[in-house]
Amino acid sequence: xxxxxxxxxxxxxxxxxxxxxxxxxxxxxxxxxxxxxxxxxxxxxxxxxxxxxxxxxxxxxxxxxxxxxxxxxxxxxxxxxxxxxxxxxxxxxxxxxxxxxxxxxxxxxxxxxxxxxxxxxxxxxxxxxxxxxxxxxxxxxxxxxxxxxxxxxxxxxxxxxxxxxxxxxxxxxxxxxxxxxxxxxxxxxxxxxxxxxxxxxxxxxxxxxxxxxxxxxxxxxxxxxxxxxxxxxxxxxxxxxxxxxxxxxxxxxxxxxxxxxxxxxxxxxxxxxxxxxxxxxxxxxxxxxxxxxxxxxxxxxxxxxxxxxxxxxxxxxxxxxxxxxxxxxx
Length: 330
Ligand SMILES: [Cu+2]
What we know:
Elements: H1 5-26, H2 36-69, H3 87-114, E1 140-141, E2 147-149, E3 151-153, E4 167-174, E5 177-181, E6 187-188, E7 191-194, E8 199-205, E9 210-214, E10 219-223, E11 229-233, E12 239-245, E13 257-263, H4 265-280, H5 298-302, H6 315-319
Helix pairs in contact: 1-2, 2-3
The structure holds copper (II) ion.
Copper (II) ion is lined by residues 173, 210, 245, 247, 249, 253, 256.
């Protein structure tokens, strides 16, 4: 007996739905999610993978079915049947993508605003704030030309208050390293942050365009010479993660990497204390920076392209870091 086509369609629909829902959670395309931002972005990405995989099964399934079911019969040399189109079908396959695209755009806008894309920290914490919504892709200024908010991702709504200041770290990108200027004058080639606290990164570039990318945090922000950009992150998982330059910035761009270490609160305080103790004892070296290219052996010179956590940096760039003013706690 033949299965009725309505039942067959239902079964195929159930199969595609279940397969898509499973694949959306099990695609394995992303590294570990180590920030609140990553959880939001992954929710959006998994939704798109679910929809995309369902459409893939539907379209490819129909294609393979049609290729087999409607193939040329033995000895048939005639033309195919002439079709003028199907209005209901065309409305359906226009309406479904329209609804999908509209839904994803609303969802992604929601993720963006929940990540602080519309709610930047101001320099003066509110008093001078313009009444309009701040949009984070460009800096905004008041009538007198004073900067109200920088370009970038601001603080997640509801995660910090004026009484509870955010740890603020200046990050400088230069060929080919990242330099982190912490409060209290600590300077380091690695980014150390405490867990479960928002951290504001004030990004700047010394020479050319760079981009500050944290794959495990799902955030990336341009580093622009002469214009500060902002990136606020919310670490939720202790560990060591790569920091990658994601803007082709010169011949050793591929070696422009360092690491982000998310500590427990106690470990972070201990790290700060150890660095302050070393500074007070007269140690002015910047920790975790690599040898200058001129001082390297050939093997060391090529190492960044094999071992991604080593960097290349020019000595004159290093020397100019000393006089850089440090950022105050906001
Ligand atoms: Cu770079």
